[in-house]
Specification:
It is a single chain. The chain is built from eleven helices and twelve strands. By secondary structure, the protein is of the alpha+beta class. The chain folds into three domains: 132 residues, no CATH class; 61 residues; 145 residues, Heat Shock Protein 90, CATH 3.30.565.10. The strands form three sheets. Strands 2-1-5-4-3 form a five-stranded antiparallel β-sheet. Strands 7-9-10-12-11 form a five-stranded mixed β-sheet. The protein has a two-stranded antiparallel sheet with strand order 6-8. Strand 1 and strand 2 form a beta hairpin. Helix 1 packs antiparallel against helix 6 and helix 9 runs antiparallel to helix 11. The longest helix is centred in the middle third of the chain and has 74 residues. 26% of the residues are buried.
Length: 468
């Protein structure tokens, strides 16, 4: 059965995955729609531009039709341009247009222009809209041209029609005056210009299919990327929850022992309420010692909490002169080392200033020196030194004690971790964790190395403060 933390992480992972997926899917969809709109709106541009060019020519032809000026370079619709079915229907139109041409007017587009653009299909229609002939590439129009829709009132507007299994873009223009006396043939004519767009439609359909496939692939990739991103986002949260769980477990373990000792001692005192303190000195002393241990543990936990809370603080500490501080702290611990029969040497070379709080640096040195003295025997030596190296301040604490095995060296900075050899020595396992947190907050590093031939060296490297 999953724990509450696991269920919470799974819900968070699912929510983040869905959020990322929806975001990517919407972006890809909008991008796809935008591309489709751009392509679909521009794919007919060439055909529509060709049709739009005729507006000027037909407008000029209409004006010339109504004028009395002589025309030239234009030709009358001839029988060769008419299909057999349309010759009879268009006879009156042809006669009227020919009469108008003989009077000096013009009837139709120039042969030169028609021949220059064979893609256009010119379909003449009578006043009632019936197809009567073609111009240009077609000497006679196919039968299915009769099925092409035509609206007498739909003029000067590009539209799309289908006939005979083909698609066309078309535009209609009115030619002639449109008026006629009773019993006479109207000289109003219409010119329907068509452009075949089968290739454009096929291209658009192919592009649509490709776009749909790519969008489907993009959505699938978005799902995978969403899961990876959400997993990456949740990973530090899971690590933090694991550390928190481990921290609570370790803290509970560390608190259990002193609390158990205090409880047992108090129960023994309660068992003999009339006893004098001097008679129960050992029990009272155990309570005092374990209470002090709890107080130190609480202080360490509060220090870690404050360091974690200020880890993202961008304010830099005031520069501190490292060499002088190392000498001060080293002199304090020299007396402690002398009492224990150990030798502590301070080798503080001029190292300049570093951006770290003075109290924090004192606490780091205190932790390192306390550990060095704690895990050395009588007659061992401890050396604390500092120097400038490569533009950085380097300080180290070296001892000739029992050392740390390589397997434990990677874990000594974990909270509450204690190597097997150190479990018999008083401590909570938080000292090096606090030291690392303080050093990293100052943008420095701390590493554990072996001191050949015996012992341990812990080196702290801090960024040097810039000279003013």
């Amino acid at each position: 059965m999953m724990s509450f933390e696991e269920r919470r992480v799974r819900r968070l992972l699912a929510r983040n995955t869905l959020l990322f997926f929806v975001t990517f899917a919407v972006l890809f969809s909008l991008f796809g729609v935008l591309i489709f709109q751009m392509v679909s709106s521009s794919i007919y541009r060439s055909a529509d531009d060709q049709l739009a060019e005729l507006r000027i020519l037909t407008s000029s032809a209409t004006l010339d039709w109504a004028s009395e000026d002589g025309g030239g370079g234009y030709e009358v619709l001839s029988d060769g341009n008419l299909s057999a079915e349309a010759k009879g229907a268009g006879a009156g139109l042809e006669e009227a247009m020919a009469d108008s041409a003989s009077d000096g007017g013009i009837t139709i587009l120039s042969r030169t222009y028609v021949a220059s653009n064979p893609q256009l299909i010119y379909l003449w229609r009578s006043a009632d809209g019936k197809a009567v002939g073609t111009e240009g590439f077609y000497s006679s129009y196919p039968a299915y041209f009769d099925d092409i829709p035509f609206e007498v009132g739909d003029l000067d507007r590009v539209y799309e029609v289908r006939a005979g299994g083909h698609a066309y873009r078309g535009i209609n223009y009115a030619m002639g005056s449109g008026g006629a006396a009773e019993g006479e043939v109207s000289n109003r004519a219409y010119l329907q210009v068509l452009v075949n767009v089968d290739s454009e439609i096929a291209l658009l359909e192919h592009f649509t299919q490709v776009l749909v496939v790519y969008l489907a692939v993009a959505v699938a990739v978005a799902a995978a990327v969403s899961f990876l991103l959400s997993h990456r986002t949740v990973k530090p949260i899971v690590a933090s929850m694991n550390r928190q769980t481990e921290f609570v477990q370790n803290a509970s373990h560390e608190l259990r022992t002193p609390l158990a000792i205090i409880l047992a001692a108090q129960e023994r005192l309660l068992a003999e309420p009339g006893a004098r303190i001097v008679d129960r000195f050992e029990d009272v002393g155990a309570v005092v010692d374990e209470t002090k241990r709890l107080a130190r543990l609480v202080d360490d936990l509060m220090t870690l909490t404050s360091v974690d809370a200020s880890a993202e603080d961008e304010c830099e500490a005031a520069p501190v002169e490292v060499s002088g501080l190392v000498e001060d702290v080293g002199s304090l611990y020299a007396d402690v080392a002398e009492v224990a029969g150990k030798m502590l040497t301070v080798a503080a070379l001029p190292a300049g200033e570093a951006h770290i709080e003075a109290d924090a640096l004192r606490q780091v040195l205190g932790i390192l020196l306390d550990n060095a003295l704690k895990y050395t025997e009588e007659g061992d030596a401890v050396i604390v030194s500092c120097e400038e190296r490569g533009g950085r301040v380097v300080l180290s604490v070296t001892d000739t004690g029992c050392g740390i095995c390589p397997a434990d060296r990677e874990r000594v900075f974990e909270r509450f971790y204690r190597a097997d050899a150190a479990r018999t020595t008083p401590g909570s396992g938080l000292g090096l964790s606090i030291a690392r947190a303080l050093v990293e907050r100052a943008r420095g590093t701390i590493v554990v190395e072996t001191n050949e031939p015996r012992g341990t060296r812990i080196t702290v490297t801090l960024p040097k403060a810039r000279a003013h």
